[in-house]
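Listing S7. Sequence submitted for prediction.
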Amino acid sequence: MISPLLPAAGLVLAVFVASPAAADRLPDLPRLGLEKTDTSVIGVSSGGYMATQLAVAWPERFQGLAVLGAGPWSCAQGSLGRALGQCMTTRLGPPQLDELEQRLADYRELERVGSAEDLAGLRAFVWHGREDKTVAPSLGSALAEQLANWLADPETQLSFLQSDNIGHGWPIERETTPLTAEELGDCQQGGATHMLACDKDIASEAMDWLHDTPPGTGTTNKANKLAGDLLHFDQSDFAVKGLDAAGYLFVPAACDAGGCGLTVALHGCAMGAEQIGDTFVHHSGLNEWAAAHDRVVLYPQAETSLGNPQGCWDWWGFAESTWQLNPLHDTREGTQISALIAMMDRLQEVRDSN
């Protein structure tokens, strides 16, 4: 499912993108003085698994969690075999939620994850395509069941949606995107950039739910230019196994003075900058929503390697020490989780003076 490197076409964002050619080194991730009590995380596929790991490890840091095309928290339990056979397909049987609940209880006793009280306060959005052949749709149902058991009032805090005739990836509105047919994935089959031509703006649906905004208020005419900057920044300050050299940050013009909320957006396997350039960053629909609602969007980037050829986020333990029989990738001690939290810390620090 590795996608070829495909350049973005017909860009419509009025943004500044720094590039290696423009300077010897990309700028650092800035301090923006963002609001510490207004943070959400959204992810697709491996990014969906990582989003849930982040929210469970540090629930006090997040108000909203959105997961697209992924299964329950800690499904792989540190095993690649289980990841492939029980958390993508279910040929080894479905994940046992009672086992995962015990894992969570053990972690909580050791203070490796957040409190049940903080986790109960999250607002959550789970979406899965019923034609998903990469991550079985039943796994999205298992995640929704798991979250319902954790949330204080799932009827008001959880939205679980499944869509007919949609496969694995990130659905976007076909009629409003400048992407070519070669760059778009087939709505049912996926492929290409995994940006699916489905006439479904999943970004707005998820963000409207997470932040309790009236549906449609973030809809922007994509032919219009956005008021904001897209920064290509150096990730070396947060370097851990599996992270790429650079990431992206979208800052709406209204957030220049600080005080805005933050959304962390995690791409899926084969959707990072190495494979598809900045296609996900530009065309997910998140920037349009964020510009309309004064939110900064952080797009960290994972990289490919021999042990992780599709550039996935670490949801089965590959980024931890090779000698660990039980890697702590899904805890506060996880290397990638720690790096992502450090990025959030930087953005929420008192803003730079220049």
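Caption to Listing S7: primary sequence and predicted structure tokens for the chain studied. The CA atoms of residues 48 and 176 lie 25 Å apart. The beta strands are 39-44, 64-68, 123-129, 158-163, 170-172, 195-197, 228-234, 246-252, 261-266, 295-299.
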